[in-house]
Amino acid sequence: MSVQLHKPSASRQAPAPAGVGLSLEARLAAVDAAMTVRLDEAAVAYEVNTAHIPTEPVDRADIVTVPVDTEPAPLPDLYPTPVAALLQRAHHRLLTNGWCKDTLVDGNGARCMLGAIRAEARGDRGLEADAAAVLLDAIRRKFGDHVDSVPSFNDAHGTSRIPIRMVDQAAHLADARDL
Questions:
Q1: Residue 3 lies inside a defined structural domain of this protein
Q2: Into how many domains does the chain fold?
Q3: pLDDT of 39
Q4: Which CB contacts under 8 angstroms, 24+ apart, belong to 68-75?
């Protein structure tokens, strides 16, 4: 029994050793051209192999959807007491409209901690004072008695993370106190 060895065709012979008279750019260009040819052949083979599969056109409206309502989600009423509910609304306002320092309201509508409480109190100065007192108590519980006021605490921070978290903790505290 004899086995015949097939000599590779000229197009299938091993390439010349790397670095024989070609620059790096020329070798990269040759590899790029070879890969482009192979990708084109694969694309044609894919088209041939899948031509018998029936397809139906797809309406883009069935695939691409956008939100119907782009407004912020309504705030659920988690706290039944007025001070806790006010602090919860102030927390939500800071999250949705932004936080600022050194002013009650900045030019973009962002508010400081006290500015958010004032906006959500809607003119009820007694409710606003109670909420600010609970907030100051929550701040002092966490950061000590050296904190003078809510505005000084707000303005001492460079980012919104801690002030916004303290308004949320104050809402929990007011709820625990049934305020």
A1: no
A2: 1
A3: 95
A4: 72/96
Q: Are 18 and 28 in contact (CB under 8 A)?
A: no
**pTM across the whole model:** 0.58
Q: How far apart (Å, rounded) are the C-alpha atoms in residues 125 and 139?
A: 21
Run of H or E residues at 171: helix 161-176
Q: Please name the residues in contact with 158: beta carbons below 8 A apart, sequence gap of 6 or more.
A: 101
Q: Is 140 within the bounds of a domain?
A: yes
pLDDT per position as a tens digit, 68-82: 666 666 666 778 899
The residues pairing with 99 across neighbouring beta strands, listed in sequence order, are 111
Q: How far apart are CA 118 and CA 177, in angstroms?
A: 21
Q: Whole-angstrom Cα distance, residue 171 to residue 131?
A: 8
Higher pLDDT, 60 or 166: 166
- Asked if 163 and 150 touch (Cβ cutoff 8 Å), the reply is no
Please give the residue range of the domain that contains residue 145: 82-176
Looking at residue 62, its pLDDT comes to: 66
Amino acid, res. 116: A
